[in-house]
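Pipeline run #58 for the internal structure catalog. This entry was flagged by the ingest filter as a single-chain record with no existing model, so it goes straight to prediction. Upstream metadata was stripped on purpose; only the residue string is passed forward. Reviewer on rotation: M.T. Logging verbosity set to normal.
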Amino acid sequence: MMCTRTLVSAALLMGGATALAQSGTTAIQLPAQVFSPSAPTPATQQTLTAPAQPLVLRFQADVPAYVAGQKTKVRVTKEMNIPAGRAQIIRQRGTVTQSLEQDLTRWMTELNAGGGARFEKQQGGGWVLVQHDLFKLDADATRAALLAAIKDPSIQVAQAKVAAQSHPQRTLDYFISRGITGHLGTGNTNYKGSSKARMTNIHVGASKFKDRLFEGGTFSFNQFLGPISRGNGYVDGLIIAGDRTEEGLGGGICQVSTTVFRSLYMAGLPVRERHTHSYQVSYYKPQGLDAAIYQPTLDLKFANDTGGAIWFQTDWNDETGEFNVYSFGKPRDFQVKLSEPRVIKSTPAPADRTIQTDTLASGQRKQVDWAAPGGTLEVDRLFVRNGQTFKKETLTSNYRAWPNIFLVGR
């Protein structure tokens, strides 16, 4: 196995090129791009006797960035890591093997893909606007450097050679000209345990907020998302319909609407339309901060009072279930803080319900809903400037008590 990782060093929130020159390399927590080249066979592994050392092909270059209100440069480092076991096999052969050549070609192609400017989160917090330029490597020189490291075990890091650097279509000025220079809010939910169908719909919906710009006075989730249809990639999943959960197109899309709601709510935007789910859904903890949508009747809307456009970025991880939506725009002169949800009223879950169905074999039993208490929850949104709260809003959510529901074949 071989993976690539991206590192960025910058004058992170320190300002100016002087700080850049003095700072060290700081890792950005980006999803690793994992390759799966051919693995060594057990017979080959038995021939390995000496301690194995990994081999790294490293690319470094300075790219434009916007830090603390100024254009500057940051050092970008991207690495192709060859694990110790595989590196030792390659070194014994003394050449760039066919599988390594394939990995090298893919890695160089990705470097030339760029991706445009976007916001990058730094260790310890804070965001930096980084322009991911396109880099064309000198393939022969890079391959020669890698081969030299293969033949000389004392060289554990080979340096890639850059032939040309060019700017992407989406540069720093794309954001600066629109005043989009600050982080507004982050929404977070967790969908671990979701079915394959539910995750599919989450992926489709989340992709609509990946590196996208919103311009306008009123943000409508349904309008920004577009139609929930099979043609757009959605599949059947569980949805809440009336007094039960049943199969419906796009089941799971409310994971996206809830996460977007939390992002824009933390950004301080005024809520214009928001609907809670019928009951407290376990995927949306902490409770009281969910947002149900159902096209075309139920929408999620915010007034855009930022004075400019809003830029969305997303990331998600199916293994952990972590899902984040980030919003960026003109910097605010205040911070938003949320209180813990308060339970104002609570009612216990009712007795289990059984529904006869023809969709299951006779006598077969399947649980389709899980019990949840009903009640009223409140969350305070505090607007803070210079350490002083100057406005407080209360978000109220009402939920029905919900039973365990079982389908039983007739």
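catalog note: Residues 9-49 have pLDDT under 50 and may be disordered.
catalog note: Residues 182-409 form one domain.
status: ready for reviewer M.T.
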